[in-house]
């Protein structure tokens, strides 16, 4: 009796839950009759996040599982966890959230899925160049369904947190693709139409790339670091050891790195603004903005953000290394030796106004440069950039960016002070590091000043507003004088 009572109570609870779900489905259909019923085949992390987002967007969600009772507690109460055949039969759009190697387990649903839109959200385990893609294999397995590739570039975390990133879709049926794009918009994402299903391999490879836009900036940063590190090593460590037998190899881990980092940071910051100057002078030379830049310049322009962030990283590391300099044992020993030498020489006061002023100005300008770089880095974040208009963004990234470059250049000049005129600084007949570093920033700042000359600035402004050197527009009167006409006069 007790056993039967328990079973009966269990059945009653399940039926009660289904009745609640049916009433909710009825309410949702009455509030928005055009909203399709969305099915999800699969019960993984992505499925649960997708179900939560769909429910929050007002959709009726059916989750298909081979063991519904096992996973019902993992999904929102508003989503109905049922069998795969029920979800496939009742849904209008079905998300295939099953690993590609398990697509064969869905073969029994072929008839239930016929004529419906299937959204493949899967990704491969490694980058594939030849195909076929998972979406194409799914389309071959369900020839009577319309397969749309989408949502594979969005993580489960993004689905739960809700950023407005783009979801890329491809498909061969325009109606099916439009329905998925509308669903995407309603969920708060921005859909991007990437063409036919034949391009699905490219979309499946996108989440597998490791920072593709960072490859060249990071390699360039490493190359600059190695170059300046070796240059400083030769001048500050190798030359004293070869010529005088002095052992300064202890400087390699911290002091040599600390001298290298600002060199890399300043050169990278110059490389951020140099392509913009090249583009401006190229437009002035061609007299038009309608001619494409060379590929190398176009790619250089697109990686300015990454170069700027690498420069900011090197600047922050330089500041941290500089703060750690007095903590070294070698610095304490040098300070004690200097104090002992001063006592032996009978020097009571070792104050030097020139050195004091140089260090005060050097640190102050360096702090201001780092502050401006921090502002540039923060503004480059999408969450911050989306809250400012284009004029504000341009002011920060351009005007304040050049101010940061000028401050960093002055910071380097104060570091050099009068050392450029001391012959002992040219070890192995090589110029000091700061002289090499200053070449590129000076070129960039001088180029910027040249563009600020009124006649040059006005001509560049005209070109960017559509004026062309080889074509002018003028009015000519018709013979009857009734109306004016436009004549395109070429001076080529």
Automatic annotation (TrEMBL):
Q: Which residues cross the membrane?
A: 216-234, 264-286, 307-328, 361-381, 393-414, 434-457
Q: Ranges for the Pyrroline-5-carboxylate reductase catalytic N-terminal domain?
A: 38-124
For the keyword Transcription, the answer is no
Query: Taking every annotated instance into account, which residue ranges of this chain make up the domain Ferric oxidoreductase?
Result: 263-406
Q: Which reaction does it catalyse?
A: 2 Fe(2+) + NADP(+) + H(+) = 2 Fe(3+) + NADPH; 2 Cu(+) + NADP(+) + H(+) = 2 Cu(2+) + NADPH
Q: Which family does it belong to?
A: Belongs to the STEAP family.
The protein's name in its UniProt record: STEAP3 metalloreductase
